[in-house]
Write a structure and sequence with these properties.
The complex is a heterodimer of chains A (377) and B (112). Chain A is an alpha/beta fold. Helices cover 25% and strands 27% of the residues of chain A. The longest helix of chain A is centred in the N-terminal third of the chain and has 16 residues, at 98-113. The longest helix of chain B has 12 residues, at 66-77. Chain B is globular. The chains are: A alpha/beta (377), B alpha+beta (112). The A-B interface holds A 2, 36-42, 46, 82, 152-153, 156, 159-160, 163, 168-174, 190-192, 194, 231-233, 257, 280, 282, 285-286, 289-290, 292-293, 299-308 and B 1-8, 41-45, 47-48, 51-52, 54, 57-59, 61, 85, 88, 90-92, 95-99, 101-104, 111.
Chain lengths: 377, 112
């Protein structure tokens, strides 16, 4: 019987859980990662557009994501010994009308206030950066230090590297509840009837974080929402930028492999049938295709080889929840990443590991507190 | 479905084999050796192998190699291939041009 006790238990084997495990193991702490599904990195970490992006984010998330892009992403492939396919070739957030321009200008102004180089450009300049974009695009915000990476190899790369450093990973181990001992988090109980014990617990289980945190009386208001993507066959090289839109309804990039990964929505997501798994709906992919062809007429003959769906955990204000839980010493969380958790993920894991190991963080996490949600009156 | 799987179970070291350079996934040009090494990197499910190496992510979407990949991974883990769940099949069944997919039911017309 192996030892079920560690200094830190991480619940959730996604990019955040795996990176936290990696950075904790690097600091010499013993770690057990419990993944509820049968596969490591099976939630939003493998089901996203791969953006490593600062622009377009709420200012509360900016210092953390900027920290990751400055300090972690540039050498991640080398460090994890896996090709994370990280590209830092800028992000175009596209607009087609005055309303879009207003949204983008606002976001850009706020981000500049945080020291981020992001500016508004007109349609002509957009097409100088990306000549394949159609005339429909009349403006964009341009952030040259944004980029994209491969979510699959990055998430599994952190797993591989953490495991190599001695972190213990157990998949198919669904956590049901936490138990405190003398007011401090201590026990983790699973559906298979196993009990794990640790001095510190990180809950990073996407939407499933809610009932787990709920078992010790902490509620983070969030819902889960479906996102869907499609993948083309390998196409000749076209461009390196990450793309998004003012209304965040379309995003994508061309991968190292040559395929395009584009995400989008049908607008019917909140009303989709929910059978317990994130399945792609028949309506969405054709709708994404129509959207893509408006932006990129040249891609009309590109073949779609694959579509997939995933859930994102949306917090009540659309901003990540990261940090220590005051009421339960030893308990930490990162959840409610709201559909943009991948790019910020390594920074979250890094800072949570530092917080547990030293009690301090390089980035102030207080704007991302779990208890910031207040009623409107 | 959801069986507890301790990823630190000892599966022994990676031992190079003479046929390690044999192509298994032809679409993505992944060899037997790369698949066997990935198992030793911790990729113990067919879904993880696919996401890590791209096996079965090419034009044929795994219709050619998925059984071969399964048997290689099973042998490396010393389990029966029947214990390994196949990776999820994805829509569409065959590659389809964006302009046709965009039309939904109306396959004959181009997208306007």
């Amino acid at each position: 019987m192996s030892n079920n006790t560690a200094e830190v238990i991480v619940i959730g084997g996604g990019v955040i859980g795996n990176s936290a495990a990696y950075y904790l193991a690097q600091r010499g702490l013993s770690v057990i990662v419990l993944e509820g599904s049968d596969h490591i990195g099976n939630g939003g970490s493998s089901r996203n557009g791969g953006g490593v992006r600062q622009s377009g984010r709420d200012v509360r998330e900016l210092p953390l994501v900027m920290y990751g892009i400055k300090n972690l992403w540039p050498h991640l492939s080398e460090e994890l010994e896996v090709d994370c396919e990280y590209h830092q070739d800028g992000n175009l957030r596209l607009g087609k009308n005055e309303k879009h321009k207003e949204i983008l200008t606002n976001l850009a102004n706020n981000a500049r206030g945080c020291g981020l180089d992001v500016r508004m450009i007109d349609g002509e300049e957009v097409r100088q950066i990306n000549p394949y974009l159609s005339e429909e695009v009349t403006c964009a915000s341009w952030c040259p230090t944004d980029g994209h990476a491969n979510p699959l190899t990055t998430t599994l790369g952190f797993y591989k590297a953490a495991r190599k450093l001695g972190a213990r990973f157990i998949s198919g181990e669904k956590v049901l509840e936490l138990k405190t001992v003398k007011g401090r988090v201590r026990k983790v109980l699973t559906a298979a009837g196993n009990t794990y014990e640790a001095e510190n617990v990180i809950v990073a289980a996407g939407f499933d974080s809610r009932p787990i945190l709920g078992s010790v009386g902490i509620d983070v208001p969030m819902t889960r929402s479906l996102l869907e993507c499609l993948v083309t066959e390998a196409e000749p090289y076209m461009f390196d930028q990450m793309l998004g839109t003012a209304e965040a309804d379309f995003y994508g990039h061309q991968t190292k492999h040559g395929s395009f990964v584009f995400g989008g929505s049908s607008g019917l997501e909140p009303f989709n049938k929910d059978n317990g798994t994130p399945v792609s709906s028949a309506k969405t992919a054709p709708c994404i295709c129509r959207g893509i062809m408006k932006y990129f007429p040249d891609l009309a003959n590109a073949k779609i080889v694959r579509t997939w769906g995933g859930w994102s955990d949306k917090s009540a204000d659309g901003v990540a929840v990261v940090g220590a839980i005051d009421e339960v010493p030893g308990l930490y969380t990162s959840c409610g990443m709201s559909g943009h958790g991948f790019g910020i993920g390594p920074a979250v894991g890094h800072q949570l590991a530092q917080l547990i190991a030293t009690g301090t963080t390089d980035v102030d996490l207080s704007p991302l507190r779990y208890d910031r949600f207040k009623a409107k009156i | 479905m959801n069986s507890v799987n301790d990823r630190n179970r000892d599966i022994g070291p990676f031992v190079p084999a003479p046929d390690d350079d044999m192509l298994i996934c032809r679409c993505e040009e992944i060899t037997k050796g790369e698949i066997r090494k990935a198992v030793h990197d911790g990729m113990w499910t067919l879904t993880e192998i696919r996401r890590y190496l791209r096996t079965g992510m090419g034009l044929c979407q795994g219709q050619t190699c998925s059984k071969l990949v399964k048997s290689i991974v099973a042998r490396e883990l010393n389990v029966s291939p029947a214990e390994l769940e196949p990776a999820t099949s994805r829509v569409p069944m065959r590659p389809i041009e964006m302009r046709i997919f965009a039309n939904e039911a109306k396959e004959d017309d181009d997208y306007e």
